[in-house]
């Protein structure tokens, strides 16, 4: 694959959630600070951004925001980390992007702060940049098939057609691809967004209807680390590579 320049130098890192599934570890710390293989989850994500050459991260905070801000204040890997403060109200994924929109270029990467993955032939930000088409896409989602989604026990999220267009899993059926939590987003996706808290799913549904939500399949491995029981298997996998 021929890799072009990264589509953006900025990523939004979603780090404001309550981490309920990760209890009891999140009773005393925000989920992004839970450690896996000797590093906090958010450090795994930020190190990937730095290695890809991304210069700026916009990180939203809500639950135990002071602890997360304190951790980020001593980070040196990225030239710039900006806090998007949601202490007053947890805005969910879509509302969080809208709150931070004036600090985000067009387009921007967006990823969950609890993501752990292994790159394929190219890093995921290069994969997304190579496939990006600003004229056709409101968002480009990084998907992973079940065989490369470790610790994952769900039924999948999406289908991809031969052109990369995304459609949702039908109720009661299995879909071949899982959303990794990593995407490349046009500011067009955020237009006319609802006020207050809302899920990005609302914006994705509109993009699907308009034929502007696309996806690509990740060529590396991705780890579901949503519960404490997933930490040890993930650490065992990471020691093999």
UniProtKB/TrEMBL annotation:
Keyword Nucleotidyltransferase assigned: yes
Please provide the record's keywords in A-Z order. Answer: Nucleotidyltransferase, Transferase
Indicate yes or no for the key word Transferase: yes
What's a single GO MF annotation on this record?
Answer: nucleotidyltransferase activity
Source superkingdom: Bacteria
* Xref: Gene3D superfamilies: Spore Coat Polysaccharide Biosynthesis Protein SpsA, Chain A
Which ranges carry the Nucleotidyl transferase domain? 11-150
| UniProt protein name | MurNAc alpha-1-phosphate uridylyltransferase
Originating species: Novosphingobium panipatense
């Amino acid at each position: 694959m021929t890799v072009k320049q990264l589509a953006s130098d900025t990523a939004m890192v979603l780090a404001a959630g309550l981490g309920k599934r990760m209890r009891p570890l999140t009773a005393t710390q925000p989920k992004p600070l839970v450690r896996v293989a000797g590093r906090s989850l958010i450090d795994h994500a930020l190190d990937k951004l730095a290695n890809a050459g991304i210069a700026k991260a916009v990180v939203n905070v809500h639950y135990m925001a002071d602890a997360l801000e304190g951790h980020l204040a001593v980070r040196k890997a990225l030239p710039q980390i900006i806090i998007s403060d949601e202490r007053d109200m947890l805005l969910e994924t879509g509302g969080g992007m809208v709150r931070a929109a004036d600090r985000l270029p067009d387009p921007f990467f967006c990823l969950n702060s609890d993501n752990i993955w292994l790159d394929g032939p190219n890093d995921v930000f290069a994969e997304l940049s190579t496939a990006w088409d600003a004229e056709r896409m409101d968002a480009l989602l990084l998907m992973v098939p079940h065989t490369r989604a470790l610790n994952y026990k769900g039924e999948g999220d999406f289908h991809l057609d031969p052109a990369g267009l995304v459609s949702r899993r039908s109720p009661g059926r299995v879909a071949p691809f899982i959303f990794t939590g990593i995407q490349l987003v046009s500011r067009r996706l955020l237009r006319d967004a609802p006020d207050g808290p809302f899920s990005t799913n609302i914006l994705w549904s509109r993009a699907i209807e308009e034929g502007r939500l696309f996806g690509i399949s990740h060529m590396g491995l991705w780890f579901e680390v949503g519960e404490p029981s997933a930490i040890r298997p993930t650490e065992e996998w990471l020691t093999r590579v």
